[in-house]
Structures are given as C-alpha cells and as structure tokens.
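For the sake of clarity, the format in which proteins appear in this thesis is described at this point. The record quoted next illustrates the convention:

___
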Amino acid sequence: MNEMNKKELIDLFMGKYAAFSNGKQATPIDIGEDAELKAMFYKELVGLPLARVNAYWSRLKFSGRAKPPIVEQAIDDVQLRLQEDESAVAYVYESSVTNEMKVVYRFD
C-alpha cells in the first residue's frame, strides 16, 4: 500500500475493516508506551479523546464484532514490526520515521 486516505485509516484503526483497499490483510498497530502520541493520533483521526476510544473498543471486544489494533509497547517495537510485517500500519512521530518505513498518510 503506497497511500491511504483518512477514511481508510479510520476503518482500519476503528475495526470496520481488516484489509487494505486492495484486499490485502492489514494489521493496525497501537503504541502502548506513549499515551500522548496515541491520544493525539485518535483525536486527529476520529476527533475523540482516548478514554472514548478505549470505551468504544471495550464494547466491540465484548460483543466479538471486531479485534482492536495490536499493541506494541515501545516505538522500537513498532519500528521493528513495520520493517518485518508488510501488513502492519502504525502511527509514529515524524522524527521516528526511518528509511525502511513507508509513510502512507500524514496529518496536516
């Protein structure tokens, strides 16, 4: 996947779809260690505070309708996952992007 739009990201990170628009499996990755980054990402993505996003996922997990993103605890783990798994999609600070990563979306 070379590029994604905001709706596609919302669909992946909020559990509506588990595949890219080309049909290939997608694996959304959340970061566990950096709550500030996670909160900023979801606020920008869906306009909700992290507490509401967590409540949303609690309901979906309980109902069995969707699986939440995989959680990697540290940015180093996220970077490694992105390098090893072509289905992985994650959010990182601009300063954490490496040459091995492909940026598919940037917030304004």
In short: The radius of gyration is 13 Å. The beta strands are 27-31, 70-72, 88-90. The mean pLDDT is 93. Residues 50-63 form the longest helix (14 residues).
